[in-house]
Amino acid sequence: MPRYAPSRIEPKWQEWWEANHTFVSPRLPGKKKRYILDMFPYPSGDGLHVGHPEGYTATDIVSRFERMRGTSVMHPMGFDAFGLPAEEHAIRTGTPPAESTKRNIDTFRRQLKMLGFSYDWSREVATTDPGYVRWTQWIFLVLFDTWFDTTENRGRPISELPIPADVAAEGDRAVARYRDEHRLAFQSEAPVNWCPALGTVLANEEVVGGVSERGGHPVVRMPLRQWMLRITAYADRLDRELDGLAWPESIKKLQRDWIGRSTGAEVDFFIGECHGDTPADESFAAWQQTRKADGFPGKPTDDALRVYTTRPDTLYGVTAMVVAPEHPAVERLTRPEARGAVEAYREAASRKSDLDRTDLAREKSGVFTGSFCRHPLDGRLVPIWVADYVLASYGTGAIMSVPAHDSRDHEFAVAFGLGIVPVISPADGGEAELPFTAHGIAVNSGPYDGLATAAFLERVGSDLHSAGLGQPAVNYKLRDWLFSRQRFWGEPFPILHELDADGRETGVVRPVPESELPVPLPVLSDYKPGNTPDPPLSRANDDWLYVELDGVRYRRETNTMPQWAGSCWYELRFLDPLNSERFVDAEVERAWMPVDLYVGGAEHAVLHLLYARFWHKVLHDRGFVSWPEPFGQLVNQGMILGEMEFTGYRHPQGGWLSAEQTRVHPTQPGVTIDRETGDEATSVRIPAEQVEKQSEHFVLRDAPKIRVDSRAYKMSKSRGNVVNPDKIVQEFGADSLRLYEMFMGPLEATKPWSTAGVGGVRSFLERCWRLVVDERADDLALSSAVCDDPADEPQLRELHRMLEKVTSDIETLSFNTAIAKMMEFVNFCTPLERRPRAILEPFVKALAPFAPHLAEELWQVLGLPAPVSLADWPAIDERYLRDDTVEIPVQVQGKLRGRVTIDADADADAMIAAATADPRIAELLEGKTIVKTIAVPGRMVNFVVR
RNA sequence: GCCGGAGUGGCGGAAUGGCAGACGCGACGGAUUCAAAAUCCGUUGCCCGCAAGGGCGUGUGGGUUCAAGUCCCACCUCCGGCACCA
């Protein structure tokens, strides 16, 4: 009984493809190439999730389709294998991370192969492979060897960095220090996000609302020597060069917002000698003279407080200056009588974690320094305050406070009783409610009164510039990338710290020679991070830790790189994974890059995708890659939620609580309470057959007054709604899983899982099977209905319409409608008692990218030579796409009143004639005046009557 | 609070401004069967009607148009992201 048996067919063809190297890509592409890439997974211990195959199936369909069209396809897969879970597992169990990682990769590889993806497995890489780490470290050294030339707006070799004469005069050490300060990879002592629970420092991107993104542990700020990558140098290009990319606009916007480019002006406020004194009139006048003569200095001078503002048109509304607690001028600006309060405030601010700063942010805090500065335009005295709502790390670390036109400044002014002076009135002449942050017309602004905001900005910009008081400035929210981690399971930095005779670091660093890469991870007995930010690698034995080179002793860098490092360039390594001379061969890189289609989750919108673009641009500037951007087209697949659930609520005193009488607990998100009493309700999952829909809501069948919630939830272990792909493959087969995931809805949409739906596509595949195979025969045999008759006209029409739809839908990634069209085709063929090969064979080809195992098997049963996976994509004959006659709707007053059949190419007059000839329409038009007739050829007729 | 995205049958979803609900799930009916499973065929937005037919329908309220799920304005709900960046 040869029923459709995926468990027999699928392994058979997977082995065949592997044995015949069906999907191996050539070193160089032919005439047309497509590089189709999935975001490679982190191989977690849980194995593949049903979310993974969604994007992977989409790219697999496109890859298989393109191969059948004769395109050279690059479609690799690998593993982003460094990461915290493996290390945490190691800490708990003592298993070296390398071992558990290998095991997890083996599981992932088995699961991916089980789904029949057409990856070129000979190109597999894991970011943890020594052969891969070597080049990650090498690229780090490229960053270390690069400085950013702001005039040319590109990275250049450090050897080309111009050395100022005064630095050169100080000698080699000074020159080395100067270079170190300008490298794209540099060390910094800035405060960092230290997470005691994870025992590591985190990047800004990994801290969400003051707690770690992973695990939600508290994060505190402390100063530490860290490696930083100067991504800010590329902020402008990372922003601008998004323009040419075929990415979703929403992702581009997320990146733009993250980069946060803003334009405005830097303005200097005179503080004089300022040891807390008020600058005198005559010294202010002298300062103004000097500035007018010498212009605006590039670096702020000690006699001025420099602010950054996007609204220099509100300059006359300034009522205070506010500087960040960490601002270097605070010391000088604080008058003796305020010193105690200011010191205390700064001390408190330095100990506040980000969590405290954001949580307490609702209430503005700050202290007055006791000193004043001079307003650059009208010379008025302006008090200087310290407040932590001003960030030291943005702009100049100081702002001019304009309470009337900035909501934060407004809150601050209200809290401390500072003046509020409106200088912009609404353009419509109405009364402004303060703070009024929109554009408008200037008032109380001296010579600028009456100017519209845009004109004001232009005028005041040039006035400030010619007076030497200000200059246009651009700022970015983006911060430099904190690139070191105090963890074990990451790439070691290929950096050596020079030691003096006493074994102390001299501050001089040198790269590990290229010939000695990769720097391997040391063998440790214990992976636990310490209580201090001292990295685990510092506990390595001396053989690893200390190195002698050219007669000098060095200690290795003991920080490791973050998980993002490996994924910053893997798209390049796939092209040439075994190259031991270069990270990727130049010819190969030029031929295959950029990635033509990149599919993955939207959660990587600002992290991975920004970092990878940054590395790519550096490699491009240094001449190692030929394109400035790695990923041409990007598509985000949507999330797959668990099955739909109905949830009812039980009252603590017993009985049901209707859903609209509940709400979520204000502080505990998982808890539902009685809206009135606040009592905690118990959530109960209700089987679908016990509910019914009543107008807008679902209610209990037995108690229709009680509403229940209906929705699908994110899959999670705790909710117990995780679907395991292994089980689905076992029960339905890989082709069914692939097809179902594509049939659920649009690729980009979030959609709920339904196991019943998998059964639906499975029965479609069974219908495909019976179209070709004789299920009643004892052995695998062709159905007797399959014949060599020529296909008739209706059959060819059905076939070519299906082919046309499937082809265009794959091109637009609309797989759900492509599958629906194939289902229609099979429904058309099933009743045929004689089924011509002429329509079956092209159908099997069209099915092949979607359900490749079944297609191969059917191809073989049809007696055709394997593999159908590389057969020519069927040609579409336009002749069969057009109808001779069409049925069109006839409307009267825009309402459908009948249908008539007309020639497909009938003109408007012929259509109207046919429509009026229809007895029903004629009846409706009887006695009415036709005011207007609309006839759209081939589409419809509409009569407007009176 | 700000920025995105989405609201269409019992469910997932389809629809270049031109026949709303393709396709699938579920449900119902029929054929086949001793019976069941499987399979095949059919019906299935809601309301009125024996029927022919009619009315109402794409979150809500307005608008543009001969014609709106689709375009415009206002609002509601849900999902996702950001959150003192001057």
How large is the radius of gyration? 35 Å
Tell me the fraction of residues in β-strands, as a range. 15-25%
- Number of separate domains: 5
The strand count comes to 42
Structural shape = globular
Label the CATH architecture of the largest domain: Alpha-Beta Complex
On the 0 to 100 scale, the average pLDDT is: 89
Any idea what the CATH superfamily of the largest domain is called? Answer: Valyl/Leucyl/Isoleucyl-tRNA synthetase, editing domain
Quickly count the helices: 29
Which structural class do you get from the secondary structure elements?
alpha+beta
Intertermini distance: 68 Å
Helix content: 25-40%
Low-confidence stretches: none
The CATH topology of the largest domain is Isoleucyl-tRNA Synthetase, domain 2
Q: What is the CATH C-level name of the largest domain?
A: Alpha Beta
Largest sheet: 7 strands, mixed
What does this structure look like?
With 946 residues, the protein is an alpha+beta fold. Strands 28, 29, 32, 33, 34, 35 and 36 form a 7-stranded mixed beta sheet that branches. Strands 2-1-26-27 form a 4-stranded parallel beta sheet, with helices on one face. The two termini are 68 Å apart. The mean pLDDT is 89. The structure holds one RNA strand of 86 nucleotides.
